[in-house]
Amino acid sequence: MNFSLYDFTPFNQWIDKFLHSHMSSFWAVAVEMTIIGLAILLFYALVGLFLVYAERKVCAFMQNRVGPNRVGPYGFFQTIADFIKLMLKELVHIKNADQLLFNLAPFIIIIASFMAIAAIPFAKGLHAIDFDIGILYVIAVSSLGVVGILLAGWSSNNKYSLIGAMRSGAQIVSYELSVGLSLVTIIILAGTMQFSQIVEGQANGWFIFKGHIPAFIAFVIFLISSTAETNRGPFDLAEAESELTAGFHTEYSGIKFAFFFLAEYMNMFIVASIAATVFLGGWMPFHMGGWAAFNHIMDFIPPFIWYIGKTFFVIWLMMWFKWTFPRLRIDQLLTLEWKYLLPINLVNILIMAFVVLMGWHF
Amino acid sequence: MKEVINLPVKNIEEEEYHINMGPQHPSTHGVLRLVVSLQGEIVKSLKPHCGYIHRGIEKMCEKDTYPQIIHLTDRMDYLSAHINNHAVCLLVEKALEVEVPERVKYIRTIIDELNRIASHQLWWCSFGMDMGGLTCYFYGLRDREHILDIFEESFGSRLLHSYYTPGGLMMDIHPNFQKGVKDFIKYFRKKIKDYDDILTGNVIMQARTKGVGILSKEDAISYGVTGPSGRASGFACDVRKHDPYGVYDKVDFKEILGTEGDTFTRYMMRMHEMRESMKIIEQLIDNVPAGDYTAKMKAVLKLPAGEYYQRVEASRGELGVYVISDGNKTPYRMKFRSPNFSNLSALDHMSRGVKIADLVAIGGSLDYVIPDIDR
Question: In this complex, is the C-beta atom of A325 within 8 Å of any C-beta atom belonging to chain B?
């Protein structure tokens, strides 16, 4: 028995063996699934709460403010207090709203982000499901969220919500393309869609460095289009508070609003995780060729920390430009996608294919 | 027997729907209600519904003496409260033929310009917020705070000052006033570059505002759009230049005119105006002459019977005060020509055929203050 922070596989095997020795294999699997489900649920809630806190602090510092600093040390428990408040608040029932769809929408959104998190590798062996089509699965599942947004806008019986939902529909359907194609660029380089193998493939260099300029272009496009896909500024047209008050979630209150809120932050976490995994080496440490001592120190940092660090770096980037840029207009948003990002992306894929074919990558 | 009514079949693409922007809406900057006819996202027409905070200021003026009226004018365009006060003071002084001391003229001009900068700072931050750049809001408020501190030190209040009285000032300026203003100018010269960096030079901001909400010079004149919004269309309407009051005839400043008349030009006009205001203050702040802070005035001011009109350049345009006096201590009739009311009237003309997001940007660039519209 040697548990370590560097490889969780022995730990998983030990739990598996322990459960199988105490109960029938059916119950062992059932217990394992429950444990994983609870672990992901807990992780989901904690990361969501932390991201809300982080965003409030980051934006406060960018705006010459202090941010939350009353509840707990440095206001750390502010989001927990807010969440409790949201849970206790009354759920407003709206006349003439389509009750079934209205109540269903927040769940669809939160389930979509919940499912996507299952395929993300947090560290070696810390991985709920390792699909061989991991990237495809994540793209497919994360785009389910738009259904929730459309339903929320449609069923609210509010014109602002409807406009927000329609904007969001056009936006997400368009930017899915760029997200997918920029990931395809890396799939060509990696030769696989399985997350664990993609990460293993970056042991001797992250793909953003390995793939020369095409990989970097793909990273930038991924960053732009994934921000758009998660409805965050400067692409937050779906909720555009100065135009549509709150867009698709205008009519939601209490815990249902909290679901939208949490899902938005978790979607940001998921796309940042994918960016970190696919472009920045996932949980692989940073290595410099020839610097043996430096590489050894880097290896000493546990993979989970590497993964979290990279993910939060990408999240910080997204927060940075959210709090700096003004919002785009809907026609400019679609122009950016269809006239600029998509053609660049297609050419980029060709270049990447050529680079891989000629063996010019590292 | 039931009568069959044939409803006209509408083409769904041509059908319009209405949304109420306001009275409670984040981008109307107050309780203004815009009934917007939309086709998809495109604005077909809009109808402003005013009056949600109508307080009957003009009627109240008929019951008040002239020194009392000054306190009411603060509550119109609360962001340029000093300049509103100035209009009434000038009118009373003109009617009574009082010559105010030079010192008062200098101080009034400096404070008017400080007030104009503070007002444009608040406009800049709320315009940034309308565009979706929330960080602008805090930058603008941070710098406005310095001006309000100077105001607070000299006359004890930060927003509604009522500092001017007919014939002079309520009290003399604080000994630290000149130093505070000079420090502020030095500070703000640096900080206004941040404004350009974060919003003016931004690609998204320029793409969203250039060529949007165009108002031609002819339309600006016929709608009576004045102030920075009118000058963006090339309408030379700066009262400080064309009908000088205070010491504006002694200082060197430019009346900057735009040519495009779009949202971006209106934006740039105000950015230029902040710099011009700083220039004016720099020329005056070291040269404030010594003397009394008020002229000798009677205890009860009675304007001779007749009609009087005085206009000043408020931070949003031309503010006119019209008084009919019957020789009593209160006016017989008082009328304010408020800049925002005229500027708002052009909103429908400017925003036909634009998207909702542009409507918000155009509204932001007109910089309307609702209490000034409703009065």
Answer: yes
User: Is B32 in the A-facing interface, judged by CB distances under 8 Å?
Assistant: no
Question: Could you say which of A62, A234, A332 has the minimum Cβ distance to residue B132?
Answer: A234
Q: Quick one: three-class SS letters along chain B?
A: CCCCCCCCCCCCCCCCEEEEECCCCCCCCCCCEEEEEEECCEEEEEEEECCCCCCCHHHHHCCCCHHHHHHHHHCCCHHHHHHHHHHHHHHHHHHHCCCCCHHHHHHHHHHHHHHHHHHHHHHHHHHHHHCCCHHHHHHHHHHHHHHHHHHHHHHCCCCCCCCEECCEECCCCCCCHHHHHHHHHHHHHHHHHHHHHHHHCCHHHHHHHCCCCCCCHHHHHHHCCCHHHHHHCCCCCCHHHHCCCCCCCCCCCCCCCCCCCCHHHHHHHHHHHHHHHHHHHHHHHCCCCCCCCECCCCCCCCCCCEEEEEEEEECCEEEEEEEEECCCCCCCEEEEECHHHHHHHCHHHHHCCCEHHHHHHHHHHHCCCHHHHHC
With pLDDT > 70 as the criterion, what percentage of chain A qualifies? 98
Q: Which CATH superfamily is domain B54-374 in?
A: Cytochrome-c3 Hydrogenase, chain B (1.10.645.10)
A124-153 pLDDT, tens digit each:
777 777 888 888 888 888 888 888 888 888
CA distance B24 to chain A (A): 9
Mean local confidence (pLDDT), A269-295: 81
CB contacts, 8 Å: B202 with chain A: 325-326
pTM (predicted TM-score)? 0.84
Q: Tell me whether 0.85 is exceeded by the ipTM.
A: no
Partners of residue B360 in chain A, C-beta under 8 Å: 242-243
Cross-chain residue pair A159–B129, CB shorter than 8 Å: no
Q: Where are the domains of chain B?
A: 54-374
- Say if A328 is an interface residue toward chain B (CB within 8 Å): yes
Q: Is B131 on the interface with A (CB under 8 A)?
A: yes
Q: What is the pLDDT of residues B105-144, one digit of tens each?
A: 898 899 999 999 999 999 998 888 888 888 888 888 888 8
Categorize the per-residue pLDDT at B13 as very low, low, confident or very high, splitting at 50, 70 and 90: low
